Amino acid sequence: MFGKQHAALPPAPEQAPQAPAKPRRGLLERAVRAVAYHVVWTPIRWAATKEAQRMWRHRDFHTPWWTAAGTYVAATIAHVAEVPWWATMPVLAAAVTGIHRYLTKHDLLPITTTTATGAAAALATWAAAAIQTDPLTGPAAIAWGVLTLATTCGWGFDRRARHWRKIRERVRVAVKTLPKVLSELGFPRIIVKGSPTVSGSGRVEYPLLLPVGVTRRILEKKIAEIESGMHWPAGSIKEIVQDPRHNSAARVILIQHETRITAQTVAFDPPETPRTAYDRVWLGNTEGDQPFYLNPFVKGHGGLHAAFGGMTGSAKSNLMRLIAMLYAHCPDLIIWVIDLKSGGQVYRELLPRIDRLAVTPKQAGEVFADLAAMPPLRAELLLPEHNQVLPVSLYPGVLVLGDEMSRAWGKTRKGNDQIVDDSDKALAQVRAYNAAVLASAQYWNKDSVHPKLLANFTNNFAGRTRQKADSQFLLRGWSKPGRDTTHLPAGAFYHQQAGDDGTDLIFTPEVTDLQLAAVAAETAHLAPALEESTATRLPYYRDRWADLPDNLIMHCSEDQQLLVHEARARRKTASLRASKNDLAVAAAADNEPRVEVTERLDIPTDVLLEEIADPHLRALVAVHLSPGWVSTAESDAAVAGQRGRKWASERRKEWRARGLVEAPERGKSRRIVGEERFVAGALKAEEVIRARRTDTEETPDTETGETPP
User: Fold this and answer.
1) Calpha distance 149→558 (Å, rounded)
2) Is the CB of residue 165 less than 8 Å from the CB of residue 58?
3) Ordered DSSP codes for 118-142
4) Mapping DSSP to helix (H, G, I), strand (E, B) and coil, where does residue 50 land?
């Protein structure tokens, strides 16, 4: 009545029933739980964490066990699920291979490891047992465990694997230390971008990301300071190169190797054998045990020339024999060889597959004269669709292997001007017409090889040299750390492409005469023939076998021996015809009749021998002036005490080659020409022997070729 009346309030909702409170744990239960957590669980978790971290740090050692255990579990699950074994085994083998590739790609395992091999062998053995029995049975599990344990132990105790793991530990520390050292040297913000690559020999590649303002050239000037700051031995940083996996100039690779280069034995086991001229040829393995290949012929570009350098014993001839042996399997490739070192002895076993062999500078000049004449002749074969490059599929390529070319290309040697001009023309023009020249010389300076020839070579290989500067004509940046060719063992070469600053260190396998003979017997029928339109118009190609040394004819095929006899017969006929023409011209020019009286006066032997100044040679010639048989003992006795038997044997061999004496029986010889002609021939033979000895002293390679020890 007095004031505003309010509406009635709604009734209060019924309150939900509350859950009963949890009973409070007793003091004893809480004490037991605390003890179990802090005394039991915490130590177990700490130990498991530490063990997991330790195992991850040493994952390279435990990988075989993890791989084997995972494969075993997967195979068991597949068997229980009734998956056919013929489907399970290939899948697991592919999985093992994929895991191995992933680990090697990310540098978790070295390149050459027994992990995949051991796991695959264990998988195959276990599969054989699992086919007969259930994989969950004891025998199969025991067999699997034993094989896995053997694989792990083999990997753990392998010397090379242990060395690799030791380097990996040092690299992990270096990755953290290197940016700090570079920052102290005035290069802040340089980081190691990615995981370093560690090879089995101890070579480490640190990928670096450079900040703005820091270039590779600037960083190279501080190599000595970097070695000092990292506590690395002097000279252990080999080089700093552009990262080939990136186009940015800020991505470089610092290559470090603490030990000197040691010889590596590379087994002759080419991953692939070339079947066409365009296929690459295997030359050996790199320092990281990766196969190294060379492409002398590139489709659409033609031939690419290569230069090989190195002192005596660096295995240049062995490397060229390897190239000839592997390319012998190509039915579209003609092989020409210039051997100015051993007179063709290095390639004698492969002669049935060789189309041409030159053993003197004169013959080498004929080879390059033919090459210089080849471009216009082969240009006639070009069609519009060939695009100015003759395809090997239609016309065979020509691979020219020149050994010790300094005798033909030397600037200071007399009579080489025409050879150098023909060589320069051939090297510059013949590439587009399926011809590639691979030449070797001890030194590539201006005295050994004419300077104008050097610009024609695309691939350069530098072997061991006497001085570091000897490689300056083959390697750019030859004075940089890590490119000292004097430290290279026999069979090791630095490779560099034209215009590239980086180098590859390769190790080559040894090639034996037995391997050459086997390849020659296998590939003799594959030798192609030069097209007739070109062969008939080359100036020296038709009689290319006329000057083959007689001691090599027995190694030729029957067709080649026939070519030798035909070429010599043509040359002899041409010589006789020229002589008759000269006589006819002389007789026609002299019309005056006259009577000629000839008389032969016998010259005493003493007078003939006075023409020989060397007393030792005079004594040897005097013995052979007798008309009867002369034994080897009598010939050696004439110079006994003054000259050795080898000296006398060399003279007798040269006399037989010149047709002065004959030796149808072993140990006996007989003069077959007159006394005057014999003395004159012996003097000419002595001049040849002395000239040959002078050339041998300049290039004292062995007759059997340079092969690594």
Assistant:
1) 59
2) yes
3) HHHHHHHHHHHHHHHS-TTSHHHHH
4) helix
Q: Which residue positions in the chain have pLDDT lower than 70?
A: 1-24, 57-65, 67-69, 71-72, 85, 89, 96, 100-101, 103-141, 143-145, 147-161, 200-201, 412-413, 578-603, 606-607, 694-709
Q: Which two tokens stand for residue 581?
A: 């023409």
Phi and psi of 643, rounded to 5°?
Answer: -130, 155
Q: Per DSSP, what are the bridge partners of residue 386?
A: none
Q: List, in sequence order, every beta strand (DSSP E) within 216-362.
A: 237-242, 251-256, 281-286, 291-294, 297-298, 302-303, 306-309, 333-339, 356-358
Q: What distance in Å separates the CA atoms of residue 470 and residue 442, rounded to the nearest whole number?
A: 9
Q: Are strands 435-441 and 397-403 parallel, antiparallel or unpaired?
A: parallel
Measured distance CA(686)–CA(654) in Å, rounded: 9
Alpha-carbon dihedral 27, 30, 36, 41, rounded to 10 degrees: -160
How far apart are alpha carbons 474 and 471 in whole angstroms? 5
pLDDT tens digits for 415-447?
788 899 999 999 999 999 989 999 999 888 877
* Closest of 320, 313, 314, 307 to residue 346, by C-alpha: 320
- Cβ proximity of 494 and 504 under 8 Å: yes
Task: Give the separation between CA 266 and CA 289, rounded to whole angstroms.
Answer: 9
Name residue 483's amino acid: R
Provide the token pair at 169. 């530990």
Residue 328: CB partners within 8 Å, gap ≥ 6?
Answer: 335, 350, 353, 519, 520, 523, 526
Asked if 406 and 449 touch (Cβ cutoff 8 Å), the reply is: yes
Q: Which of 189, 167, 169 is nearest to 178 (CA)?
A: 189
What is the model's pLDDT at position 519?
A: 94
Residue that is written with structure tokens 């750390």 in the block: 481
Q: What angle do CA 167, 170, 175 make, to 5 degrees?
A: 120
How far is residue 256's CA from residue 260's CA, in Å, rounded to a whole number? 11
d(CA 525, CA 523): 5
**What b-and-e string marks burial along 614-637, b requiring 16 or more CB atoms within 10 Å of the CB?**
eeebbbbbbbbeeeeebebeebbe
Q: How many CB atoms within 10 Å of residue 332?
A: 19
Name the token pair of 244.
């080939």
Instruction: Residue 166: count other Cβ atoms within 10 Å of its Cβ.
Output: 11
Q: How far apart are CA 581 and CA 587, in angstroms?
A: 10
Residue 502's pLDDT is 80
Nearest to 480 by CA among 258, 310, 235: 235
pTM score, whole prediction:
0.59
Give residue for tokens 């075993």: 72
**CB neighbourhood size of 541 (10 A):** 20
DSSP 214-240: --HHHHHTTHHHHHHHHTPPTT-EEEE
Half-sphere exposure of 598 toward its Cβ, with a 13 Å CA cutoff?
A: 1
- CA-based radius of gyration for the chain: 39
pLDDT computed for residue 575 by the predictor? 75
**Measured CA distances, 644 to 142, 211, 332, 654, 684 (Å):** 73, 72, 50, 16, 21
Burial class (CB in 10 A: 0-12, 13-18, 19+), 343: middle
With a CB cutoff of 8 Å and minimum separation 6, the contacts of 578 are none
Q: Please say whether the dihedral angle defined by the alpha carbons of residues 211, 215, 221 and 223, taken in this order, is positive or negative.
A: positive
